[in-house]
Amino acid sequence: MLNNIFTAFIFILTAMFEVSFLHTLPFPYFIIPLHFLIGVIVMHRADPVLGAVWFAISGFFLSWVGFNEANSLTYIAVGAIGYFLTFKVFANRSVYALIGLGFSMYFIFTILNLIILSFSDNFNRSDFLHQQFVALFFLVFGLYFGFIIARYIEHLATDMFFIRIKP
Amino acid sequence: MAFLPTKIPENLKKFIRPASVIFGVVMLFLMLNSFSLTSRMSNDTQAGLFAVGSHVQTIYKKMFSSKTEIIDEGNHYKYLVTNQTLNEVRLFEAEKKVNELQNLLNYKASQPYKTITADIIARSVAGESSILIDQGAEEGLRAGLPVVVGDGYIIGTIISTQPHRSTVRLLRDSNSSIPSALLNGKKVMGLVSGLDSFLLFMDYIPQSEEVGSQMIVVTSGLDKNIPSGLVIGIIDSVVENATAPFKQAYVDPVIDVFDYRSVLILDPQAEIYAE
Protein backbone atom coordinates (compact mmCIF):
# COMPACT_ATOMS: atom_id res chain seq x y z
CA MET A 1 0.00 0.00 0.00
CA LEU A 2 2.79 2.40 0.98
CA ASN A 3 4.67 1.45 -2.20
CA ASN A 4 1.64 2.28 -4.31
CA ILE A 5 1.04 5.66 -2.68
CA PHE A 6 4.74 6.57 -2.96
CA THR A 7 4.69 5.57 -6.63
CA ALA A 8 1.60 7.72 -7.22
CA PHE A 9 3.33 10.79 -5.75
CA ILE A 10 6.46 10.13 -7.83
CA PHE A 11 4.16 9.83 -10.85
CA ILE A 12 2.61 13.26 -10.21
CA LEU A 13 5.92 14.98 -9.40
CA THR A 14 7.84 13.61 -12.39
CA ALA A 15 4.99 14.59 -14.74
CA MET A 16 4.95 18.17 -13.41
CA PHE A 17 8.76 18.35 -13.47
CA GLU A 18 8.93 17.18 -17.06
CA VAL A 19 6.28 19.51 -18.51
CA SER A 20 7.19 22.60 -16.46
CA PHE A 21 10.98 22.39 -16.10
CA LEU A 22 12.41 20.10 -18.76
CA HIS A 23 10.23 21.48 -21.57
CA THR A 24 11.60 24.97 -20.78
CA LEU A 25 15.19 23.98 -21.49
CA PRO A 26 16.80 24.48 -24.89
CA PHE A 27 17.40 21.69 -27.40
CA PRO A 28 18.24 18.85 -26.85
CA TYR A 29 17.45 18.86 -23.14
CA PHE A 30 13.72 19.44 -23.49
CA ILE A 31 13.44 16.04 -25.15
CA ILE A 32 14.58 14.11 -22.05
CA PRO A 33 11.76 11.56 -21.46
CA LEU A 34 11.99 11.65 -17.67
CA HIS A 35 8.46 10.45 -16.96
CA PHE A 36 8.83 7.55 -19.40
CA LEU A 37 12.23 6.69 -17.95
CA ILE A 38 10.96 6.54 -14.37
CA GLY A 39 7.99 4.47 -15.54
CA VAL A 40 10.33 1.89 -17.07
CA ILE A 41 12.37 1.73 -13.86
CA VAL A 42 9.19 1.27 -11.80
CA MET A 43 8.03 -1.48 -14.15
CA HIS A 44 11.32 -3.35 -14.08
CA ARG A 45 12.64 -2.73 -10.58
CA ALA A 46 9.50 -2.32 -8.48
CA ASP A 47 6.36 -3.96 -9.83
CA PRO A 48 5.34 -4.60 -13.46
CA VAL A 49 1.71 -3.99 -12.51
CA LEU A 50 2.60 -0.55 -11.11
CA GLY A 51 4.55 0.16 -14.27
CA ALA A 52 1.67 -0.83 -16.51
CA VAL A 53 -0.72 1.38 -14.55
CA TRP A 54 1.88 4.18 -14.68
CA PHE A 55 1.85 4.13 -18.48
CA ALA A 56 -1.90 3.66 -18.70
CA ILE A 57 -2.52 6.96 -16.88
CA SER A 58 0.51 8.84 -18.24
CA GLY A 59 -0.99 10.01 -21.51
CA PHE A 60 -4.04 11.52 -19.88
CA PHE A 61 -2.21 13.08 -16.94
CA LEU A 62 0.60 14.63 -19.01
CA SER A 63 -2.06 16.28 -21.20
CA TRP A 64 -3.67 17.74 -18.10
CA VAL A 65 -0.57 19.21 -16.38
CA GLY A 66 1.02 20.42 -19.60
CA PHE A 67 1.28 19.31 -23.19
CA ASN A 68 1.54 15.80 -24.50
CA GLU A 69 2.20 15.49 -28.21
CA ALA A 70 1.87 11.69 -28.12
CA ASN A 71 -1.49 9.97 -28.23
CA SER A 72 -2.82 8.62 -24.91
CA LEU A 73 -3.62 5.27 -26.51
CA THR A 74 0.04 4.72 -27.35
CA TYR A 75 0.93 5.00 -23.67
CA ILE A 76 -1.67 2.36 -22.79
CA ALA A 77 -0.39 0.05 -25.54
CA VAL A 78 3.24 0.56 -24.50
CA GLY A 79 2.36 -0.18 -20.88
CA ALA A 80 0.68 -3.45 -21.85
CA ILE A 81 3.57 -4.46 -24.11
CA GLY A 82 6.10 -3.52 -21.44
CA TYR A 83 4.27 -5.67 -18.91
CA PHE A 84 4.53 -8.63 -21.27
CA LEU A 85 8.22 -7.95 -22.05
CA THR A 86 9.10 -7.71 -18.35
CA PHE A 87 7.96 -11.30 -17.74
CA LYS A 88 8.80 -12.99 -21.01
CA VAL A 89 11.88 -11.28 -22.45
CA PHE A 90 13.61 -9.05 -19.89
CA ALA A 91 12.92 -11.03 -16.73
CA ASN A 92 16.52 -10.70 -15.55
CA ARG A 93 17.05 -7.88 -13.05
CA SER A 94 20.31 -6.73 -14.58
CA VAL A 95 21.03 -3.28 -15.97
CA TYR A 96 21.09 -4.79 -19.48
CA ALA A 97 17.55 -6.10 -19.09
CA LEU A 98 16.43 -2.67 -17.85
CA ILE A 99 18.04 -0.90 -20.81
CA GLY A 100 16.67 -3.52 -23.20
CA LEU A 101 13.19 -3.10 -21.79
CA GLY A 102 13.39 0.70 -21.99
CA PHE A 103 14.79 0.64 -25.51
CA SER A 104 12.10 -1.80 -26.72
CA MET A 105 9.26 0.13 -25.10
CA TYR A 106 10.43 3.48 -26.45
CA PHE A 107 10.97 2.02 -29.92
CA ILE A 108 7.41 0.67 -29.95
CA PHE A 109 6.18 4.00 -28.53
CA THR A 110 7.89 5.84 -31.41
CA ILE A 111 6.48 3.52 -34.07
CA LEU A 112 2.93 3.78 -32.72
CA ASN A 113 3.16 7.58 -32.48
CA LEU A 114 4.59 7.75 -36.00
CA ILE A 115 1.58 5.84 -37.30
CA ILE A 116 -1.03 7.80 -35.37
CA LEU A 117 0.50 11.28 -35.73
CA SER A 118 1.04 10.80 -39.48
CA PHE A 119 -2.64 11.56 -39.93
CA SER A 120 -2.19 14.97 -38.28
CA ASP A 121 -1.77 18.06 -40.52
CA ASN A 122 0.93 19.66 -38.34
CA PHE A 123 3.09 16.54 -38.13
CA ASN A 124 6.68 16.84 -39.34
CA ARG A 125 8.08 13.34 -39.68
CA SER A 126 11.77 14.20 -39.96
CA ASP A 127 11.70 16.50 -36.91
CA PHE A 128 9.78 13.89 -34.94
CA LEU A 129 12.23 11.07 -35.78
CA HIS A 130 15.21 13.30 -35.04
CA GLN A 131 13.79 14.19 -31.63
CA GLN A 132 12.91 10.57 -30.87
CA PHE A 133 16.45 9.45 -31.72
CA VAL A 134 17.90 12.03 -29.33
CA ALA A 135 15.32 11.05 -26.67
CA LEU A 136 16.33 7.40 -27.05
CA PHE A 137 19.93 8.34 -26.31
CA PHE A 138 18.85 10.18 -23.15
CA LEU A 139 16.61 7.26 -22.18
CA VAL A 140 19.41 4.68 -22.39
CA PHE A 141 21.79 7.02 -20.60
CA GLY A 142 19.21 7.76 -17.92
CA LEU A 143 18.29 4.11 -17.42
CA TYR A 144 21.90 3.17 -16.80
CA PHE A 145 22.27 5.74 -14.03
CA GLY A 146 18.69 5.20 -12.96
CA PHE A 147 19.52 1.56 -12.29
CA ILE A 148 22.32 2.58 -9.95
CA ILE A 149 20.13 5.14 -8.17
CA ALA A 150 17.19 2.71 -7.96
CA ARG A 151 19.36 0.07 -6.30
CA TYR A 152 20.64 2.64 -3.82
CA ILE A 153 17.09 3.76 -3.01
CA GLU A 154 15.97 0.14 -2.61
CA HIS A 155 18.71 -0.54 -0.07
CA LEU A 156 18.05 2.74 1.70
CA ALA A 157 14.29 2.13 1.85
CA THR A 158 14.80 -1.41 3.03
CA ASP A 159 17.13 -0.30 5.82
CA MET A 160 15.11 2.73 6.90
CA PHE A 161 11.47 1.86 6.23
CA PHE A 162 11.51 -1.92 5.82
CA ILE A 163 9.82 -1.64 2.40
CA ARG A 164 10.31 -4.85 0.48
CA ILE A 165 10.67 -4.65 -3.29
CA LYS A 166 9.43 -7.73 -5.05
CA PRO A 167 12.28 -9.83 -6.51
CA MET B 1 -27.48 -11.86 -8.88
CA ALA B 2 -26.50 -14.82 -11.02
CA PHE B 3 -24.35 -13.08 -13.62
CA LEU B 4 -22.00 -11.34 -11.14
CA PRO B 5 -18.71 -13.21 -10.42
CA THR B 6 -18.65 -14.70 -6.95
CA LYS B 7 -14.90 -14.95 -6.83
CA ILE B 8 -12.32 -12.54 -8.31
CA PRO B 9 -9.63 -14.46 -10.22
CA GLU B 10 -6.18 -14.41 -8.62
CA ASN B 11 -4.62 -13.00 -11.80
CA LEU B 12 -6.95 -10.03 -11.67
CA LYS B 13 -6.47 -9.37 -7.95
CA LYS B 14 -2.84 -8.36 -8.34
CA PHE B 15 -3.89 -5.66 -10.84
CA ILE B 16 -6.79 -4.24 -8.89
CA ARG B 17 -5.02 -3.01 -5.77
CA PRO B 18 -2.08 -1.05 -7.25
CA ALA B 19 -4.23 0.21 -10.12
CA SER B 20 -6.91 1.44 -7.77
CA VAL B 21 -4.43 3.12 -5.41
CA ILE B 22 -2.52 4.95 -8.14
CA PHE B 23 -5.69 5.82 -10.03
CA GLY B 24 -7.31 6.99 -6.80
CA VAL B 25 -4.40 9.24 -5.82
CA VAL B 26 -4.20 10.76 -9.30
CA MET B 27 -7.96 11.33 -9.48
CA LEU B 28 -7.90 12.84 -5.97
CA PHE B 29 -5.15 15.21 -7.14
CA LEU B 30 -7.21 16.23 -10.17
CA MET B 31 -10.38 16.67 -8.09
CA LEU B 32 -8.54 18.79 -5.52
CA ASN B 33 -7.36 21.03 -8.35
CA SER B 34 -10.93 22.17 -8.89
CA PHE B 35 -10.58 24.03 -5.58
CA SER B 36 -8.73 27.32 -5.86
CA LEU B 37 -6.38 26.70 -2.89
CA THR B 38 -5.03 23.36 -4.10
CA SER B 39 -5.07 24.54 -7.69
CA ARG B 40 -3.00 27.54 -6.64
CA MET B 41 -0.49 25.21 -4.95
CA SER B 42 -0.02 23.04 -8.04
CA ASN B 43 0.07 26.10 -10.35
CA ASP B 44 2.70 27.74 -8.11
CA THR B 45 4.77 24.54 -8.15
CA GLN B 46 4.70 24.38 -11.93
CA ALA B 47 5.31 28.14 -12.26
CA GLY B 48 8.34 27.77 -9.99
CA LEU B 49 9.68 24.87 -12.06
CA PHE B 50 9.09 26.88 -15.26
CA ALA B 51 10.96 29.87 -13.75
CA VAL B 52 13.94 27.67 -12.82
CA GLY B 53 13.95 26.19 -16.32
CA SER B 54 13.90 29.67 -17.86
CA HIS B 55 16.78 30.62 -15.56
CA VAL B 56 18.79 27.63 -16.84
CA GLN B 57 17.90 28.50 -20.43
CA THR B 58 19.12 32.10 -19.94
CA ILE B 59 22.46 30.86 -18.57
CA TYR B 60 22.73 28.34 -21.42
CA LYS B 61 22.11 31.06 -24.02
CA LYS B 62 24.74 33.28 -22.41
CA MET B 63 27.27 30.47 -22.30
CA PHE B 64 26.81 29.45 -25.93
CA SER B 65 26.54 32.89 -27.56
CA SER B 66 28.73 33.97 -30.52
CA LYS B 67 32.54 33.99 -30.26
CA THR B 68 32.74 37.80 -30.37
CA GLU B 69 30.35 38.13 -27.46
CA ILE B 70 32.24 35.52 -25.48
CA ILE B 71 35.55 37.39 -25.99
CA ASP B 72 33.94 40.70 -25.06
CA GLU B 73 32.44 39.25 -21.90
CA GLY B 74 35.53 37.19 -21.02
CA ASN B 75 36.81 39.48 -18.28
CA HIS B 76 33.36 39.81 -16.82
CA TYR B 77 32.91 36.04 -16.58
CA LYS B 78 36.33 35.64 -14.98
CA TYR B 79 35.13 37.96 -12.27
CA LEU B 80 31.91 35.95 -11.95
CA VAL B 81 33.79 32.70 -11.56
CA THR B 82 36.06 33.99 -8.82
CA ASN B 83 33.69 36.30 -6.95
CA GLN B 84 30.16 35.37 -5.83
CA THR B 85 29.05 33.82 -9.11
CA LEU B 86 25.71 32.62 -7.91
CA ASN B 87 24.80 35.91 -6.26
CA GLU B 88 25.52 37.82 -9.50
CA VAL B 89 23.33 35.52 -11.56
CA ARG B 90 20.54 35.64 -8.97
CA LEU B 91 20.67 39.43 -8.95
CA PHE B 92 20.54 39.55 -12.76
CA GLU B 93 17.52 37.25 -12.82
CA ALA B 94 15.78 39.21 -10.06
CA GLU B 95 16.33 42.50 -11.94
CA LYS B 96 15.03 40.92 -15.13
CA LYS B 97 11.90 39.70 -13.34
CA VAL B 98 11.33 43.10 -11.73
CA ASN B 99 11.73 44.90 -15.08
CA GLU B 100 9.39 42.42 -16.73
CA LEU B 101 6.72 42.89 -14.09
CA GLN B 102 7.21 46.68 -14.06
CA ASN B 103 6.66 46.79 -17.83
CA LEU B 104 3.53 44.71 -17.42
CA LEU B 105 2.30 46.97 -14.62
CA ASN B 106 2.97 50.13 -16.64
CA TYR B 107 1.20 48.67 -19.66
CA LYS B 108 -1.68 47.42 -17.51
CA ALA B 109 -2.15 50.89 -15.98
CA SER B 110 -2.35 52.44 -19.45
CA GLN B 111 -5.08 50.12 -20.68
CA PRO B 112 -8.79 50.98 -20.49
CA TYR B 113 -9.71 47.27 -20.54
CA LYS B 114 -9.90 44.69 -17.82
CA THR B 115 -6.50 43.01 -17.49
CA ILE B 116 -5.44 39.80 -15.76
CA THR B 117 -1.84 38.89 -15.00
CA ALA B 118 -0.79 35.25 -15.29
CA ASP B 119 2.36 33.15 -15.00
CA ILE B 120 3.42 30.66 -17.65
CA ILE B 121 3.58 27.14 -16.16
CA ALA B 122 4.29 24.94 -19.18
CA ARG B 123 4.91 25.07 -22.90
CA SER B 124 4.62 22.62 -25.77
CA VAL B 125 7.83 21.38 -27.35
CA ALA B 126 6.51 19.79 -30.55
CA GLY B 127 3.42 19.98 -32.69
CA GLU B 128 1.21 22.94 -31.78
CA SER B 129 2.96 26.01 -30.35
CA SER B 130 1.11 26.63 -27.11
CA ILE B 131 1.69 27.62 -23.51
CA LEU B 132 -0.23 26.94 -20.32
CA ILE B 133 -0.96 29.80 -17.91
CA ASP B 134 -2.13 29.65 -14.31
CA GLN B 135 -5.38 31.62 -14.66
CA GLY B 136 -8.61 30.11 -15.93
CA ALA B 137 -12.38 30.48 -16.21
CA GLU B 138 -12.78 31.12 -12.50
CA GLU B 139 -10.59 34.21 -12.87
CA GLY B 140 -12.70 35.51 -15.76
CA LEU B 141 -10.79 34.19 -18.77
CA ARG B 142 -12.48 32.77 -21.86
CA ALA B 143 -11.47 31.60 -25.32
CA GLY B 144 -10.45 34.25 -27.83
CA LEU B 145 -8.86 36.75 -25.44
CA PRO B 146 -5.48 38.18 -26.47
CA VAL B 147 -2.35 37.54 -24.43
CA VAL B 148 0.41 40.17 -24.39
CA VAL B 149 3.87 40.61 -22.88
CA GLY B 150 6.15 43.56 -22.24
CA ASP B 151 4.86 46.83 -23.67
CA GLY B 152 1.91 45.37 -25.54
CA TYR B 153 3.38 42.72 -27.83
CA ILE B 154 0.67 40.22 -28.56
CA ILE B 155 1.96 36.64 -28.37
CA GLY B 156 -1.23 34.63 -28.87
CA THR B 157 -4.84 34.04 -27.93
CA ILE B 158 -6.57 31.80 -25.40
CA ILE B 159 -8.05 28.72 -27.06
CA SER B 160 -9.39 26.78 -24.08
CA THR B 161 -9.89 27.29 -20.37
CA GLN B 162 -10.12 25.07 -17.30
CA PRO B 163 -11.26 26.36 -13.90
CA HIS B 164 -7.77 27.60 -12.96
CA ARG B 165 -5.69 27.13 -16.11
CA SER B 166 -5.84 28.19 -19.72
CA THR B 167 -4.17 27.14 -22.93
CA VAL B 168 -2.77 29.90 -25.13
CA ARG B 169 -2.12 29.29 -28.80
CA LEU B 170 0.91 31.31 -29.85
CA LEU B 171 0.94 33.39 -33.03
CA ARG B 172 3.68 31.15 -34.48
CA ASP B 173 1.29 28.17 -34.52
CA SER B 174 0.15 27.28 -38.05
CA ASN B 175 -3.48 27.18 -36.85
CA SER B 176 -3.25 30.75 -35.59
CA SER B 177 -4.49 33.70 -37.63
CA ILE B 178 -5.45 37.18 -36.47
CA PRO B 179 -6.67 40.26 -38.36
CA SER B 180 -3.84 42.71 -38.62
CA ALA B 181 -2.96 46.11 -40.00
CA LEU B 182 0.19 47.56 -41.47
CA LEU B 183 1.25 51.01 -40.30
CA ASN B 184 2.62 52.60 -43.48
CA GLY B 185 1.21 56.10 -43.07
CA LYS B 186 -2.29 54.65 -43.25
CA LYS B 187 -3.80 51.50 -41.80
CA VAL B 188 -3.59 48.70 -44.37
CA MET B 189 -5.52 45.54 -43.44
CA GLY B 190 -4.20 42.02 -43.72
CA LEU B 191 -4.17 38.67 -41.94
CA VAL B 192 -1.21 37.33 -39.96
CA SER B 193 -0.85 33.59 -39.52
CA GLY B 194 1.79 31.31 -38.07
CA LEU B 195 4.22 29.04 -39.92
CA ASP B 196 5.37 26.85 -36.98
CA SER B 197 8.61 28.81 -37.09
CA PHE B 198 9.89 32.08 -35.65
CA LEU B 199 8.63 34.23 -38.58
CA LEU B 200 4.94 34.95 -39.16
CA PHE B 201 3.18 35.36 -42.50
CA MET B 202 1.01 38.30 -43.50
CA ASP B 203 -1.39 37.83 -46.38
CA TYR B 204 -4.20 39.72 -48.14
CA ILE B 205 -2.29 42.98 -48.42
CA PRO B 206 -3.76 44.89 -51.37
CA GLN B 207 -1.41 45.04 -54.37
CA SER B 208 -1.84 48.80 -54.56
CA GLU B 209 -0.36 49.36 -51.10
CA GLU B 210 3.31 50.04 -50.48
CA VAL B 211 4.91 47.48 -48.19
CA GLY B 212 8.51 47.75 -47.03
CA SER B 213 10.86 46.18 -44.56
CA GLN B 214 10.75 47.40 -40.93
CA MET B 215 7.12 48.55 -41.18
CA ILE B 216 5.19 47.86 -37.99
CA VAL B 217 2.38 45.29 -37.97
CA VAL B 218 -0.36 45.63 -35.34
CA THR B 219 -3.75 44.10 -34.62
CA SER B 220 -6.52 45.72 -36.63
CA GLY B 221 -9.36 45.44 -34.13
CA LEU B 222 -11.64 43.52 -36.51
CA ASP B 223 -11.83 40.72 -33.95
CA LYS B 224 -14.08 42.03 -31.18
CA ASN B 225 -12.02 40.26 -28.53
CA ILE B 226 -8.68 41.65 -29.70
CA PRO B 227 -8.27 45.43 -29.39
CA SER B 228 -6.48 47.30 -32.14
CA GLY B 229 -2.93 48.54 -31.79
CA LEU B 230 -1.31 45.50 -30.16
CA VAL B 231 2.13 45.08 -31.74
CA ILE B 232 2.63 41.85 -33.68
CA GLY B 233 6.04 42.58 -35.18
CA ILE B 234 7.80 44.26 -38.07
CA ILE B 235 7.97 43.35 -41.75
CA ASP B 236 11.02 41.18 -42.41
CA SER B 237 10.69 40.70 -46.17
CA VAL B 238 8.05 41.06 -48.88
CA VAL B 239 7.00 38.30 -51.29
CA GLU B 240 6.79 40.11 -54.62
CA ASN B 241 4.41 38.65 -57.17
CA ALA B 242 2.76 41.13 -59.50
CA THR B 243 0.33 38.53 -60.85
CA ALA B 244 -1.02 37.50 -57.42
CA PRO B 245 -4.22 39.19 -56.20
CA PHE B 246 -2.58 40.19 -52.90
CA LYS B 247 0.86 41.01 -51.56
CA GLN B 248 2.39 38.83 -48.90
CA ALA B 249 5.12 39.44 -46.36
CA TYR B 250 7.05 37.73 -43.60
CA VAL B 251 6.73 39.30 -40.18
CA ASP B 252 9.44 39.24 -37.50
CA PRO B 253 7.82 39.11 -34.04
CA VAL B 254 10.92 40.87 -32.60
CA ILE B 255 10.41 39.30 -29.16
CA ASP B 256 10.94 35.69 -28.10
CA VAL B 257 7.96 34.64 -26.05
CA PHE B 258 10.01 32.08 -24.13
CA ASP B 259 12.09 34.88 -22.56
CA TYR B 260 9.02 35.82 -20.51
CA ARG B 261 7.49 34.15 -17.48
CA SER B 262 4.54 36.49 -16.90
CA VAL B 263 1.85 37.54 -19.36
CA LEU B 264 -1.12 39.90 -19.40
CA ILE B 265 -4.56 38.96 -20.71
CA LEU B 266 -6.76 41.76 -22.07
CA ASP B 267 -10.54 41.59 -21.98
CA PRO B 268 -12.12 44.44 -23.95
CA GLN B 269 -15.57 42.94 -23.49
CA ALA B 270 -15.46 42.36 -19.73
CA GLU B 271 -18.43 44.65 -19.06
CA ILE B 272 -20.61 42.81 -21.60
CA TYR B 273 -19.88 39.41 -20.11
CA ALA B 274 -20.28 40.68 -16.57
CA GLU B 275 -23.94 41.62 -17.22
UniProtKB/TrEMBL annotation, chain A:
Q: Which domain of life is it from?
A: Bacteria
Q: Which keywords accompany this UniProt record?
A: Membrane, Transmembrane, Transmembrane helix
Q: Where are the transmembrane segments?
A: 27-43, 50-67, 73-91, 98-120, 132-153
Instruction: State what protein this is by name.
Output: Rod shape-determining protein MreD
Write down the species. Answer: Candidatus Uhrbacteria bacterium CG_4_9_14_3_um_filter_41_35
TrEMBL record, chain B:
What residue intervals traverse the membrane? 15-32
Q: Does the keyword Transferase apply?
A: no
Q: Which InterPro entries match?
A: Cell/Rod_1, Cell/Rod_MreC_2, MreC, MreC_beta-barrel_core
Q: Does the keyword Methyltransferase apply?
A: no
In this chain the Rod shape-determining protein MreC beta-barrel core domain maps to: 127-266
One Gene Ontology BP term is: regulation of cell shape
Q: Which domain of life is it from?
A: Bacteria
Protein name, please? Answer: Cell shape-determining protein MreC
